[in-house]
Known about the structure:
By secondary structure, this protein is of the alpha/beta class. It folds into four domains: 124 residues, Rossmann fold (3-Layer(aba) Sandwich), CATH 3.40.50; 158 residues, Rossmann fold, CATH 3.40.50; 70 residues, Helicase, Ruva Protein, domain 3; 62 residues. The strands form three sheets. The chain has a five-stranded parallel beta sheet with strand order 2-1-3-4-5, sandwiched between helices. A five-stranded parallel beta sheet has the order 7-8-11-6-12. It has a two-stranded antiparallel ribbon with strand order 9-10. The N and C termini lie far apart (77 Å).
Amino acid sequence: MISFTIWIIDDETSIREGIEIALESDYEIRTFADAESALELLQKDRPDLVLLDIGLPGMDGISALEKIRQDIPDLPVIMITAYEEVKTVISAMKMGAHDYIIKPLLMPGLRKTIRNTLETLRLKKEVQVLQERYLNENMPCFIGESSSIQDVMHFVSQVAQSPDTPILILGETGTGKELLARTVHYRSPNFRGEFVAVNCAAIPKDLIESELFGYEKGAFSGASISGKKGLIEIAENGTLFLDEIGDLIPETQAKLLRFLEEGEFYRIGGTRKIKIRTRVISATNRNLEKMMNKNLFRKDLYFRLSVIKVQVPSLNERREDIMPIAMYFMNKFNEKFGKKLCGLSPRAEKKLLDHNWMGNVRELRNVMERGVLVSGGKELSHDDLGLDEKTDTAEAEEQGMSYPPLSDKGIDLPAMQDDMLFHYIRKALRLTGGNESRAAGLLNLKPHNFRYRCAKMKKQNDNEKTK
Protein backbone atom coordinates (compact mmCIF):
# COMPACT_ATOMS: atom_id res chain seq x y z
CA MET A 1 0.00 0.00 0.00
CA ILE A 2 1.30 3.44 -0.97
CA SER A 3 1.49 5.87 1.99
CA PHE A 4 1.40 9.65 1.54
CA THR A 5 3.02 12.58 3.32
CA ILE A 6 1.18 15.91 3.59
CA TRP A 7 2.77 19.23 4.58
CA ILE A 8 0.53 21.92 6.10
CA ILE A 9 1.83 25.51 5.81
CA ASP A 10 -0.36 27.95 7.76
CA ASP A 11 0.42 30.64 10.33
CA GLU A 12 -2.71 29.91 12.39
CA THR A 13 -1.94 27.30 15.07
CA SER A 14 -5.57 26.24 15.41
CA ILE A 15 -5.82 25.45 11.68
CA ARG A 16 -2.55 23.51 11.62
CA GLU A 17 -3.48 21.47 14.67
CA GLY A 18 -7.08 20.91 13.52
CA ILE A 19 -6.02 19.56 10.12
CA GLU A 20 -3.30 17.42 11.70
CA ILE A 21 -5.72 15.81 14.17
CA ALA A 22 -8.25 15.15 11.40
CA LEU A 23 -5.74 13.55 9.00
CA GLU A 24 -2.97 11.97 11.10
CA SER A 25 -4.65 8.55 11.23
CA ASP A 26 -4.53 8.27 7.42
CA TYR A 27 -1.45 10.26 6.40
CA GLU A 28 1.97 11.30 7.63
CA ILE A 29 1.59 14.99 8.59
CA ARG A 30 4.18 17.74 8.97
CA THR A 31 3.25 21.35 9.86
CA PHE A 32 4.97 24.73 9.28
CA ALA A 33 4.06 28.20 10.52
CA ASP A 34 5.76 29.98 7.60
CA ALA A 35 6.73 29.31 4.00
CA GLU A 36 10.45 29.97 4.48
CA SER A 37 11.05 27.01 6.81
CA ALA A 38 9.04 24.66 4.57
CA LEU A 39 10.91 25.72 1.43
CA GLU A 40 14.25 25.24 3.17
CA LEU A 41 13.34 21.66 4.09
CA LEU A 42 12.00 21.08 0.57
CA GLN A 43 15.60 21.15 -0.67
CA LYS A 44 16.24 17.91 1.27
CA ASP A 45 12.86 16.23 1.60
CA ARG A 46 9.71 16.01 -0.50
CA PRO A 47 6.06 15.48 0.51
CA ASP A 48 3.34 14.05 -1.71
CA LEU A 49 0.98 17.00 -1.16
CA VAL A 50 1.18 20.54 0.24
CA LEU A 51 -1.68 22.49 1.86
CA LEU A 52 -0.56 26.12 1.51
CA ASP A 53 -2.20 29.19 3.07
CA ILE A 54 -2.28 32.26 0.81
CA GLY A 55 -2.19 34.88 3.60
CA LEU A 56 1.14 33.99 5.25
CA PRO A 57 3.39 36.48 7.06
CA GLY A 58 6.75 37.07 5.38
CA MET A 59 6.71 35.17 2.09
CA ASP A 60 3.07 34.91 1.09
CA GLY A 61 1.44 31.79 -0.34
CA ILE A 62 1.52 32.99 -3.97
CA SER A 63 5.28 33.60 -3.83
CA ALA A 64 5.79 30.25 -2.11
CA LEU A 65 3.72 28.49 -4.80
CA GLU A 66 5.82 30.11 -7.52
CA LYS A 67 9.00 28.83 -5.84
CA ILE A 68 7.56 25.30 -5.46
CA ARG A 69 6.54 25.25 -9.15
CA GLN A 70 10.09 26.20 -10.14
CA ASP A 71 11.78 23.56 -7.98
CA ILE A 72 9.28 20.67 -8.13
CA PRO A 73 6.80 21.26 -10.99
CA ASP A 74 4.81 18.06 -10.41
CA LEU A 75 4.26 18.50 -6.64
CA PRO A 76 0.47 18.99 -6.07
CA VAL A 77 -0.43 22.06 -3.99
CA ILE A 78 -3.88 22.83 -2.53
CA MET A 79 -4.30 26.49 -1.58
CA ILE A 80 -6.02 27.50 1.69
CA THR A 81 -7.80 30.83 1.31
CA ALA A 82 -10.23 33.11 3.09
CA TYR A 83 -13.45 33.89 1.21
CA GLU A 84 -12.34 37.42 0.36
CA GLU A 85 -9.12 36.06 -1.23
CA VAL A 86 -10.90 34.01 -3.91
CA LYS A 87 -9.71 36.32 -6.71
CA THR A 88 -6.15 35.76 -5.57
CA VAL A 89 -6.58 31.99 -5.59
CA ILE A 90 -7.63 32.15 -9.25
CA SER A 91 -4.15 33.49 -9.97
CA ALA A 92 -2.75 30.60 -7.96
CA MET A 93 -4.70 28.09 -10.07
CA LYS A 94 -3.28 29.64 -13.22
CA MET A 95 0.19 29.23 -11.76
CA GLY A 96 -0.38 25.49 -11.30
CA ALA A 97 -2.12 24.99 -7.96
CA HIS A 98 -4.04 21.69 -8.03
CA ASP A 99 -7.12 22.91 -6.09
CA TYR A 100 -8.18 25.24 -3.29
CA ILE A 101 -10.26 25.16 -0.09
CA ILE A 102 -11.95 28.11 1.66
CA LYS A 103 -11.85 29.02 5.35
CA PRO A 104 -13.53 28.20 7.65
CA LEU A 105 -12.46 24.68 6.79
CA LEU A 106 -15.06 21.92 6.77
CA MET A 107 -13.29 18.61 7.37
CA PRO A 108 -15.53 16.38 5.18
CA GLY A 109 -14.90 18.67 2.19
CA LEU A 110 -11.17 18.87 2.97
CA ARG A 111 -10.88 15.07 3.20
CA LYS A 112 -12.66 14.66 -0.16
CA THR A 113 -10.41 17.20 -1.88
CA ILE A 114 -7.31 15.50 -0.49
CA ARG A 115 -8.56 12.01 -1.43
CA ASN A 116 -9.26 13.07 -5.02
CA THR A 117 -5.83 14.68 -5.36
CA LEU A 118 -3.98 11.73 -3.85
CA GLU A 119 -5.96 9.17 -5.88
CA THR A 120 -4.66 10.80 -9.05
CA LEU A 121 -1.17 10.77 -7.58
CA ARG A 122 -1.51 7.12 -6.49
CA LEU A 123 -2.45 6.02 -10.00
CA LYS A 124 0.53 7.89 -11.41
CA LYS A 125 2.84 6.24 -8.87
CA GLU A 126 1.51 2.77 -9.64
CA VAL A 127 2.07 3.31 -13.35
CA GLN A 128 5.59 4.59 -12.67
CA VAL A 129 6.37 1.54 -10.51
CA LEU A 130 5.12 -0.84 -13.22
CA GLN A 131 6.96 1.06 -15.94
CA GLU A 132 10.24 1.16 -14.07
CA ARG A 133 9.94 -2.52 -13.09
CA TYR A 134 9.51 -3.49 -16.75
CA LEU A 135 12.30 -1.22 -17.94
CA ASN A 136 14.74 -2.43 -15.28
CA GLU A 137 14.06 -6.08 -16.13
CA ASN A 138 13.98 -5.80 -19.91
CA MET A 139 16.39 -3.10 -21.07
CA PRO A 140 19.88 -4.71 -21.19
CA CYS A 141 20.54 -3.19 -24.63
CA PHE A 142 20.48 0.26 -23.12
CA ILE A 143 22.62 -0.29 -20.05
CA GLY A 144 25.66 1.96 -19.94
CA GLU A 145 26.90 5.48 -19.57
CA SER A 146 28.16 6.19 -23.10
CA SER A 147 27.04 9.59 -24.34
CA SER A 148 25.52 8.08 -27.49
CA ILE A 149 23.12 5.79 -25.62
CA GLN A 150 22.33 8.40 -22.97
CA ASP A 151 21.37 10.84 -25.72
CA VAL A 152 19.07 8.22 -27.29
CA MET A 153 17.36 7.39 -24.00
CA HIS A 154 16.86 11.06 -23.09
CA PHE A 155 15.32 11.70 -26.51
CA VAL A 156 13.09 8.63 -26.19
CA SER A 157 11.80 9.76 -22.79
CA GLN A 158 10.73 13.04 -24.42
CA VAL A 159 9.03 11.66 -27.52
CA ALA A 160 7.26 8.92 -25.54
CA GLN A 161 4.93 11.51 -24.02
CA SER A 162 2.86 11.68 -27.21
CA PRO A 163 0.18 8.95 -27.54
CA ASP A 164 0.23 8.71 -31.34
CA THR A 165 3.17 10.47 -33.03
CA PRO A 166 4.84 7.95 -35.40
CA ILE A 167 8.46 6.97 -34.71
CA LEU A 168 11.00 5.38 -37.06
CA ILE A 169 13.86 3.49 -35.37
CA LEU A 170 16.99 2.90 -37.45
CA GLY A 171 19.92 0.67 -36.54
CA GLU A 172 21.87 -2.48 -37.25
CA THR A 173 20.53 -5.95 -36.53
CA GLY A 174 20.78 -6.83 -32.85
CA THR A 175 20.98 -3.28 -31.48
CA GLY A 176 17.65 -3.54 -29.65
CA LYS A 177 15.20 -1.68 -31.87
CA GLU A 178 12.20 -3.63 -30.57
CA LEU A 179 13.26 -3.09 -26.97
CA LEU A 180 13.49 0.62 -27.67
CA ALA A 181 9.97 0.53 -29.14
CA ARG A 182 8.74 -1.20 -25.99
CA THR A 183 10.43 1.48 -23.91
CA VAL A 184 8.48 4.16 -25.77
CA HIS A 185 5.28 2.19 -25.20
CA TYR A 186 5.81 1.71 -21.46
CA ARG A 187 6.69 5.37 -20.97
CA SER A 188 3.77 6.65 -23.02
CA PRO A 189 0.11 7.42 -22.19
CA ASN A 190 -0.66 4.13 -24.03
CA PHE A 191 1.04 2.16 -21.25
CA ARG A 192 -2.05 0.13 -20.38
CA GLY A 193 -2.81 -0.76 -24.01
CA GLU A 194 -1.40 -3.66 -26.03
CA PHE A 195 2.09 -3.64 -27.52
CA VAL A 196 1.74 -5.58 -30.78
CA ALA A 197 4.97 -6.47 -32.60
CA VAL A 198 4.88 -7.44 -36.28
CA ASN A 199 7.87 -8.67 -38.28
CA CYS A 200 6.93 -7.56 -41.79
CA ALA A 201 9.65 -9.76 -43.31
CA ALA A 202 8.39 -12.92 -41.61
CA ILE A 203 4.82 -12.77 -42.97
CA PRO A 204 4.22 -13.91 -46.59
CA LYS A 205 3.65 -10.90 -48.84
CA ASP A 206 0.18 -12.11 -49.88
CA LEU A 207 -0.91 -12.35 -46.22
CA ILE A 208 0.56 -9.19 -44.70
CA GLU A 209 -2.43 -7.00 -45.58
CA SER A 210 -4.97 -9.36 -44.01
CA GLU A 211 -2.76 -9.74 -40.93
CA LEU A 212 -2.55 -5.97 -40.44
CA PHE A 213 -6.05 -4.88 -41.40
CA GLY A 214 -8.10 -8.05 -40.87
CA TYR A 215 -10.89 -9.30 -43.12
CA GLU A 216 -14.63 -9.88 -43.19
CA LYS A 217 -16.14 -13.38 -43.44
CA GLY A 218 -15.95 -14.78 -46.95
CA ALA A 219 -13.57 -12.01 -48.07
CA PHE A 220 -11.43 -14.50 -49.99
CA SER A 221 -10.99 -18.21 -50.52
CA GLY A 222 -9.92 -19.83 -47.25
CA ALA A 223 -11.00 -16.89 -45.08
CA SER A 224 -12.47 -17.70 -41.68
CA ILE A 225 -16.24 -17.86 -41.69
CA SER A 226 -16.35 -15.42 -38.80
CA GLY A 227 -13.85 -12.92 -40.22
CA LYS A 228 -10.78 -11.76 -38.32
CA LYS A 229 -9.54 -8.68 -36.50
CA GLY A 230 -6.27 -7.26 -37.82
CA LEU A 231 -3.23 -6.48 -35.70
CA ILE A 232 -3.94 -2.76 -36.01
CA GLU A 233 -7.30 -3.28 -34.26
CA ILE A 234 -5.68 -5.43 -31.58
CA ALA A 235 -3.25 -2.57 -30.91
CA GLU A 236 -6.07 -0.04 -30.38
CA ASN A 237 -5.13 2.48 -27.66
CA GLY A 238 -1.72 0.85 -27.54
CA THR A 239 1.33 0.57 -29.80
CA LEU A 240 1.81 -1.19 -33.13
CA PHE A 241 5.47 -2.02 -33.81
CA LEU A 242 6.27 -2.74 -37.46
CA ASP A 243 9.73 -4.29 -37.66
CA GLU A 244 11.48 -4.61 -41.03
CA ILE A 245 9.15 -1.97 -42.45
CA GLY A 246 11.21 -1.88 -45.66
CA ASP A 247 9.80 -5.29 -46.61
CA LEU A 248 6.21 -4.07 -47.01
CA ILE A 249 4.87 -4.46 -50.54
CA PRO A 250 3.66 -1.26 -52.33
CA GLU A 251 -0.05 -2.12 -51.99
CA THR A 252 0.22 -2.50 -48.22
CA GLN A 253 2.36 0.64 -48.00
CA ALA A 254 -0.48 2.65 -49.60
CA LYS A 255 -3.10 1.28 -47.20
CA LEU A 256 -0.84 1.86 -44.18
CA LEU A 257 -0.28 5.46 -45.28
CA ARG A 258 -4.02 6.08 -45.38
CA PHE A 259 -4.41 4.70 -41.87
CA LEU A 260 -1.57 6.89 -40.56
CA GLU A 261 -3.07 10.01 -42.13
CA GLU A 262 -6.76 9.39 -41.41
CA GLY A 263 -6.73 7.00 -38.46
CA GLU A 264 -9.18 4.77 -40.29
CA PHE A 265 -9.25 1.75 -42.61
CA TYR A 266 -11.44 -0.99 -44.08
CA ARG A 267 -11.00 -4.68 -43.44
CA ILE A 268 -10.43 -6.74 -46.56
CA GLY A 269 -13.83 -7.33 -48.11
CA GLY A 270 -15.44 -4.85 -45.72
CA THR A 271 -17.59 -1.79 -46.36
CA ARG A 272 -17.63 -0.46 -42.78
CA LYS A 273 -15.01 2.16 -42.01
CA ILE A 274 -13.08 1.35 -38.81
CA LYS A 275 -11.63 4.30 -36.92
CA ILE A 276 -9.18 3.68 -34.07
CA ARG A 277 -6.27 5.36 -32.33
CA THR A 278 -2.93 3.63 -31.92
CA ARG A 279 0.71 4.61 -32.09
CA VAL A 280 2.78 3.20 -34.95
CA ILE A 281 6.48 2.64 -34.36
CA SER A 282 8.46 1.20 -37.26
CA ALA A 283 12.03 -0.06 -37.53
CA THR A 284 14.49 -1.20 -40.15
CA ASN A 285 18.17 -1.85 -40.74
CA ARG A 286 17.73 -1.02 -44.43
CA ASN A 287 18.42 2.32 -46.11
CA LEU A 288 14.90 3.56 -46.83
CA GLU A 289 16.18 6.68 -48.58
CA LYS A 290 18.01 4.58 -51.16
CA MET A 291 14.91 2.42 -51.52
CA MET A 292 12.84 5.56 -52.20
CA ASN A 293 15.24 6.61 -54.93
CA LYS A 294 14.69 3.21 -56.58
CA ASN A 295 10.89 3.50 -56.13
CA LEU A 296 10.89 0.54 -53.73
CA PHE A 297 9.47 2.54 -50.82
CA ARG A 298 6.89 5.33 -50.89
CA LYS A 299 8.27 8.77 -50.08
CA ASP A 300 5.00 9.95 -48.55
CA LEU A 301 4.90 6.91 -46.27
CA TYR A 302 8.54 7.42 -45.26
CA PHE A 303 7.92 11.02 -44.25
CA ARG A 304 4.81 10.03 -42.30
CA LEU A 305 6.56 7.18 -40.49
CA SER A 306 9.60 9.31 -39.63
CA VAL A 307 7.93 12.26 -37.90
CA ILE A 308 10.31 11.24 -35.09
CA LYS A 309 13.48 9.44 -36.17
CA VAL A 310 15.80 7.62 -33.74
CA GLN A 311 19.19 6.17 -34.72
CA VAL A 312 20.31 3.36 -32.37
CA PRO A 313 24.12 3.20 -32.10
CA SER A 314 25.83 -0.12 -32.71
CA LEU A 315 27.72 -1.81 -29.89
CA ASN A 316 30.98 -1.08 -31.72
CA GLU A 317 30.11 2.63 -31.53
CA ARG A 318 29.70 2.51 -27.73
CA ARG A 319 32.39 0.10 -26.68
CA GLU A 320 32.55 1.50 -23.13
CA ASP A 321 29.17 -0.16 -22.55
CA ILE A 322 30.37 -3.67 -23.47
CA MET A 323 31.43 -4.68 -19.95
CA PRO A 324 28.36 -3.30 -18.10
CA ILE A 325 26.09 -5.16 -20.53
CA ALA A 326 28.20 -8.32 -20.24
CA MET A 327 27.95 -8.20 -16.44
CA TYR A 328 24.17 -7.78 -16.68
CA PHE A 329 23.92 -10.92 -18.80
CA MET A 330 26.32 -12.82 -16.54
CA ASN A 331 24.11 -12.11 -13.51
CA LYS A 332 20.99 -13.02 -15.49
CA PHE A 333 22.40 -16.37 -16.64
CA ASN A 334 23.90 -17.05 -13.20
CA GLU A 335 20.33 -17.03 -11.92
CA LYS A 336 19.00 -19.06 -14.84
CA PHE A 337 21.63 -21.80 -14.65
CA GLY A 338 22.18 -21.79 -10.87
CA LYS A 339 25.77 -20.57 -11.19
CA LYS A 340 27.73 -18.22 -8.92
CA LEU A 341 30.24 -16.64 -11.28
CA CYS A 342 31.59 -13.43 -9.82
CA GLY A 343 33.31 -11.86 -12.82
CA LEU A 344 35.52 -12.34 -15.87
CA SER A 345 39.21 -13.01 -16.10
CA PRO A 346 41.36 -10.14 -17.43
CA ARG A 347 41.95 -12.09 -20.64
CA ALA A 348 38.20 -12.68 -21.07
CA GLU A 349 37.49 -8.98 -20.57
CA LYS A 350 40.10 -8.07 -23.17
CA LYS A 351 38.57 -10.56 -25.56
CA LEU A 352 35.13 -8.97 -25.19
CA LEU A 353 36.52 -5.46 -25.58
CA ASP A 354 38.59 -6.35 -28.67
CA HIS A 355 35.88 -8.33 -30.45
CA ASN A 356 34.09 -6.85 -33.47
CA TRP A 357 30.41 -7.13 -32.49
CA MET A 358 28.78 -7.50 -35.88
CA GLY A 359 25.71 -9.00 -34.18
CA ASN A 360 25.66 -6.21 -31.57
CA VAL A 361 24.00 -6.81 -28.18
CA ARG A 362 22.21 -9.93 -29.41
CA GLU A 363 25.59 -11.51 -30.20
CA LEU A 364 26.99 -10.43 -26.81
CA ARG A 365 24.00 -12.00 -25.07
CA ASN A 366 24.57 -15.30 -26.86
CA VAL A 367 28.28 -15.27 -26.02
CA MET A 368 27.57 -14.66 -22.33
CA GLU A 369 24.85 -17.32 -22.21
CA ARG A 370 27.24 -19.87 -23.67
CA GLY A 371 30.05 -18.76 -21.35
CA VAL A 372 28.04 -19.01 -18.14
CA LEU A 373 26.55 -22.35 -19.16
CA VAL A 374 29.89 -24.09 -19.87
CA SER A 375 31.98 -22.39 -17.19
CA GLY A 376 33.18 -24.54 -14.32
CA GLY A 377 35.12 -21.90 -12.39
CA LYS A 378 34.43 -18.90 -10.20
CA GLU A 379 34.93 -16.50 -13.09
CA LEU A 380 34.46 -16.63 -16.84
CA SER A 381 37.63 -17.50 -18.70
CA HIS A 382 38.50 -16.54 -22.26
CA ASP A 383 37.93 -20.16 -23.34
CA ASP A 384 34.39 -20.13 -21.89
CA LEU A 385 33.38 -17.34 -24.25
CA GLY A 386 34.11 -19.36 -27.40
CA LEU A 387 35.23 -16.35 -29.43
CA ASP A 388 37.80 -16.70 -32.21
CA GLU A 389 41.32 -16.43 -30.84
CA LYS A 390 42.79 -14.77 -33.92
CA THR A 391 43.09 -11.03 -34.17
CA ASP A 392 44.18 -8.85 -37.05
CA THR A 393 47.54 -8.39 -35.35
CA ALA A 394 48.06 -12.14 -35.01
CA GLU A 395 47.16 -12.71 -38.66
CA ALA A 396 49.58 -10.02 -39.74
CA GLU A 397 52.37 -11.49 -37.61
CA GLU A 398 51.78 -14.94 -39.13
CA GLN A 399 52.44 -13.40 -42.54
CA GLY A 400 55.62 -11.70 -41.33
CA MET A 401 54.07 -8.21 -41.32
CA SER A 402 54.23 -5.59 -38.59
CA TYR A 403 51.50 -2.94 -38.77
CA PRO A 404 50.97 -0.03 -36.39
CA PRO A 405 47.67 -0.54 -34.54
CA LEU A 406 44.47 1.08 -35.81
CA SER A 407 42.28 2.39 -32.98
CA ASP A 408 38.86 4.01 -33.13
CA LYS A 409 40.69 7.36 -33.08
CA GLY A 410 41.93 6.71 -36.62
CA ILE A 411 45.29 6.72 -38.36
CA ASP A 412 47.07 8.85 -40.97
CA LEU A 413 47.83 6.73 -44.02
CA PRO A 414 51.10 7.44 -45.82
CA ALA A 415 51.71 6.12 -49.32
CA MET A 416 51.87 2.37 -48.83
CA GLN A 417 51.67 -0.92 -50.62
CA ASP A 418 48.29 -2.42 -51.39
CA ASP A 419 48.66 -5.29 -48.88
CA MET A 420 49.15 -2.88 -46.00
CA LEU A 421 46.38 -0.57 -47.19
CA PHE A 422 43.92 -3.46 -47.55
CA HIS A 423 44.78 -4.58 -44.01
CA TYR A 424 43.74 -1.17 -42.67
CA ILE A 425 40.59 -1.08 -44.78
CA ARG A 426 39.48 -4.44 -43.35
CA LYS A 427 40.36 -3.33 -39.84
CA ALA A 428 38.48 -0.01 -40.22
CA LEU A 429 35.38 -1.79 -41.49
CA ARG A 430 35.50 -4.15 -38.51
CA LEU A 431 35.85 -1.28 -36.03
CA THR A 432 32.89 0.56 -37.53
CA GLY A 433 30.63 -2.46 -38.00
CA GLY A 434 30.80 -2.14 -41.79
CA ASN A 435 29.95 1.58 -41.88
CA GLU A 436 31.88 2.76 -44.96
CA SER A 437 31.67 6.50 -44.30
CA ARG A 438 32.99 6.10 -40.73
CA ALA A 439 35.67 3.66 -41.89
CA ALA A 440 36.81 6.21 -44.48
CA GLY A 441 36.99 8.81 -41.73
CA LEU A 442 39.22 6.57 -39.60
CA LEU A 443 41.63 6.27 -42.52
CA ASN A 444 41.43 9.97 -43.37
CA LEU A 445 40.21 9.10 -46.87
CA LYS A 446 37.53 10.81 -48.90
CA PRO A 447 34.47 8.53 -49.24
CA HIS A 448 34.91 8.16 -53.00
CA ASN A 449 38.61 7.29 -52.53
CA PHE A 450 37.67 4.73 -49.89
CA ARG A 451 35.08 3.11 -52.18
CA TYR A 452 37.61 3.01 -55.02
CA ARG A 453 40.16 1.22 -52.84
CA CYS A 454 37.50 -1.20 -51.53
CA ALA A 455 36.62 -2.07 -55.11
CA LYS A 456 40.30 -2.56 -55.90
CA MET A 457 40.66 -4.85 -52.87
CA LYS A 458 37.62 -6.89 -53.92
CA LYS A 459 38.96 -7.24 -57.46
CA GLN A 460 42.31 -8.46 -56.15
CA ASN A 461 40.57 -11.00 -53.88
CA ASP A 462 38.44 -12.24 -56.79
CA ASN A 463 41.52 -12.64 -58.96
CA GLU A 464 43.27 -14.65 -56.24
CA LYS A 465 40.27 -16.98 -55.93
CA THR A 466 40.29 -17.75 -59.66
CA LYS A 467 44.01 -18.59 -59.78
